[in-house]
Specification:
The chain has 152 residues and is mostly helical. The protein contains 7 helices and no strands. It has one domain. Helix 2 crosses helix 3 and helix 5 packs antiparallel against helix 6. The radius of gyration is 21 Å and the shape is extended.
Length: 152
């Protein structure tokens, strides 16, 4: 395979970009993501235990926990607090359901000045839409593979 040789300008740009880009502390970022994501899950488990004391139905309890976590993430996003947490937590806030809520609410707030239909409604799923599409597609592919493997 032939590699295209970089021009002098491309080489200079690559060197400048590398010099200007700070090194990412990978281990610390992973640790923060683990701790923040784990804390969100711990809060979810605490809510589950709290709701289970009053409500005997596990399905209802699970739904209430999800709705509560989503509501808290939406409120924190609305007040600009979620973004400050995410700046430190990184992927720890993106993986749980709270990250999905933030991905829906953030564009909706950003484009709300353009109106309810063309601003909020149109742009609401600009970030979360691809996640839904590719997540669904991956689920279908996994389901087909699982179905085929169970036949034999």
């Amino acid at each position: 395979m032939n590699k295209k040789k970089k021009t002098k300008a491309e080489q200079q740009y690559s060197e400048m970009a590398k010099a200007a880009s700070p090194n990412s502390p990978c281990v610390m970022n992973c640790l923060k993501a683990f701790l923040f994501g784990g804390t969100i899950c711990l809060i979810g488990q605490g809510l589950r235990d709290l709701y289970a004391m009053r409500i005997p139905d596990d399905k209802t309890v699970g739904t209430l926990v999800s709705v509560t976590l989503i509501a808290v993430a939406v409120i924190l996003t609305g007040f600009g607090v979620f973004d400050k947490i995410a700046k430190h937590a990184g992927a720890g806030t993106l993986v749980p359901i709270t990250g999905f809520a933030n991905a829906v609410v953030s564009p909706a707030l950003e484009f709300s000045t353009e109106g309810h239909i063309l601003g909020t409604a149109v742009n609401m799923f600009s970030i979360a839409g691809p996640v839904i599409v590719f997540g669904t597609a991956a689920g279908v592919i996994y389901g087909i593979i699982y179905w085929i493997t169970t036949l034999f």
